[in-house]
Amino acid sequence: MRNCDSKKLRPNLIPKTLVPENQETPIHLVSGDIISDKLFYRRNHFPYPSFTSSFYFLPIEGQVHISKVFSLQEIYSMPAKTIKVVLECSGDKRELFKPKVYGEQWGKGAISQGIWKGVSLKTLLQYTGLLDNAKEIVFEGYDNGRRPDSNKLYNFSRSLPIEKALDPDTIIAYEYNNHPISFKHGFPLRLIVPGWYAMASVKWIKKIIIIDKEFKGPFQDIDYVYYPNQENDNGKVPVTTINVNSTIQYPLNMQLLHSGVYEIKGIAWTGEGQITMVEISIDGGQTWNKCKLTSSFEKHSWIRWNYTWNALKKGEYTIKSKAADSKGNVQPLEPIWNRKGYGYNAIDHIKVKIE
Which intervals hold domain Moybdenum cofactor oxidoreductase dimerisation (predicted)? Predict the structure, then answer.
């Protein structure tokens, strides 16, 4: 059986921009369920922040019974929660939209997965309490800068509704893959919001503010919003839950292959429920066959899959993958086009030629 020898590969991140740093994971060239820190994709709106971590404290204020400032030592001493989570940029696969949309032209690698350890936000909030009028929780990061549409200085800030914030799996993380989170991924504390696109997982948390109204920051109310119309903002809705999706990792797109037996493989993931089926088509979508799911189900992680292909006839082939989840979501033939290019999840496809 032919396959790529992943043990010999030494892939690097694929750069998009350097300041701010935006680089994607070479998702087609990595194996396993855990992405190393060095190969975890990087998404930033601003240059890396500057602050003194040795004097780091985390304040929680606003609509609480008791405002409190937590030291790192206090947070480390609380009951810890460890979860494997897939984080996907909402702009993942943006370059595939037709017609094209403006924004970082991500390929298929603005997605990574690993093991995060921290304290549940619900646990942390037990020390402050929430007032009855609390509606949303705002997370402000240390990263800041000027947006293209304004000369005003902004910190990257996002909010969560109370219900999502109090989900036991929403954590304030301080470790990744059994090591302290690296600076480039949010050291010393990063919010992890399983099931939501990764813009919600705010890095370098500066403070947490509980508010009694809807948060209207630009990274909540302007960016990370689905705009279905090119001409106006009618029908806009916020970007939240990850769409069901899949990616073919091998073979590579436009690869030349000799006739033989090949293992087509990839990953599939979803924001809610679990992946229940992945299908593959070798003939451009005319017929479909079930793939073998090769990794066990874990609540917030991707599923690995493969399919054995007897590629004996010469010619060009369009291979497609389609995932479905337990909530009844199925990858569509075409993505739902939106002006900012979020949430692409159309059936994945590649082309290969058997010589």
Answer: 239-353
Integer distance in angstroms from the first to the last C-alpha of the chain?
Answer: 17
Tens of pLDDT, residue by residue, the chain (355 residues): 545 444 565 799 999 999 999 999 999 999 899 999 999 999 999 999 998 878 899 999 999 999 999 999 999 999 999 999 999 999 999 999 999 999 999 999 999 999 999 999 999 999 999 999 999 999 999 999 999 988 899 999 999 999 999 999 999 999 999 999 999 999 999 999 999 999 999 999 999 999 999 999 999 999 999 999 999 999 999 999 999 999 999 999 999 999 999 999 999 999 999 999 999 999 999 999 999 999 988 999 999 999 999 999 999 999 999 999 999 999 999 999 999 999 999 999 999 999 9
Is the CATH number 3.40.50.300 carried by domain 245-354? no
For 144-152, the CB contacts below 8 A with 24+ separation are 144/46, 144/49, 145/20, 145/45, 145/46, 145/47, 147/45, 147/218, 149/218, 149/222, 150/218
The CATH homologous superfamily for domain 14-238 is Oxidoreductase, molybdopterin-binding domain (3.90.420.10)
Contact 172, 217 (CB under 8 A): no
